[in-house]
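Sat 14:20. Reprocessing the chain from the morning session after the first attempt stalled halfway. Input below, unchanged.
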Amino acid sequence: MNKFSYCYLLLLVTLLAHSSCSLQRLLKKKTTEVAVIDSSADVYTGILPRFSLPAPDTFMLAIDTIGNGIKLLTIVKPVWERRLSYNTFGAKAKVNFEGPEEKQEFTASIRLRKDSAIWVDITALGGMVHAARVLITPDSMLMINYLQKEFSKISLGDIAKILPVQVDFPTLQNLITGDPPRNGTISAVSETADKWWLSVDDGSYVQVIAYDKADSLLKTDQVNTRNTNGPEALFKFMNYISIQNKKFSANREITINNGADHFKLSLEMQRVDFDQVLDFPFSIPKNYTEKR
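Finished this time. C-alpha cells:
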C-alpha cells in the first residue's frame, strides 16, 4: 500500500506513474490498419492506433455511398454530442488496480462540482486505513498521503511535463461521470450489426468509440495520443443504471497496454448521487512534510 501515491482518480497518473520504471517502459505502441466509412467519401482507409477488437466488432470494409454515410452521421452525431447534465456528483467506489509489479484494492469516496473541483478520499482494508485525500481544481492538485505523513502541491501543467500524456480537468471529470474522456470532431463513422463506431479527433488525441445501437449507450472508448511513442488506453463502460433520469455506467474498466506491460483499473460504483449539496474538506496536518 505504501507505493500507492495519492489518488486513483488521476487515472493516467496512477496507471502510468505508479512506479517510475513502469513509466519508462510506456514508450512504444503498435498501429493496425483499418478501413473506416467516411461521410465525405466512398471509403476512407487510414492508420489508427488501436487495440485488437473481438471478431464481431471489426470495422465494416464494404463500400458505402456518400448518401448512406451522411445518413449514418445524422443518426450518430446526436448520440456523440449527448452529455450528462448535472451540477454536482457524489459517489463511493470500490477500486481494483493491477500492474506489472503489484495489485491493490481500496475504496474511494468521490465528490465533484462541475468544472470546479474534484475531491477524492481513499481508504483501504475495508475503511480501516485512511490512505490519501486529493483535491483537484482546473489548474492544480493538492494531495495528502496519510500513510507517509506527506503532502504535495502540483500544477496540472507540471504533470504534463513528466508524463507522456496530457492531464487536464475536463478529461478527469468526464472519466468520473462516464462521459467520453475527450471532446472532438467526428472524422469517420461506421456500423456493425449491433454497434455504431466513431473516430473522433481533437488535434492531440484520436478516439475510436463504440455505442450500442439498442440503447445508444457508450460501450467502449479507445484513446491514443498522436505521439508515436505514446501509450494507448481502452475504457469500457458497463452495468448502466438509472439515477434521477440519468443513465450512468456503474462499472468501468480502464486498461493501458504497452507490449508486455499491462495496467488495469476496475471501478464499481456502490453509491451515486447527482446535484446534492457537497462540501470539499481539505486540511493538511501541521506535522506533515511537503514532498516536492
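The first strand starts at residue 32 and ends at 36.
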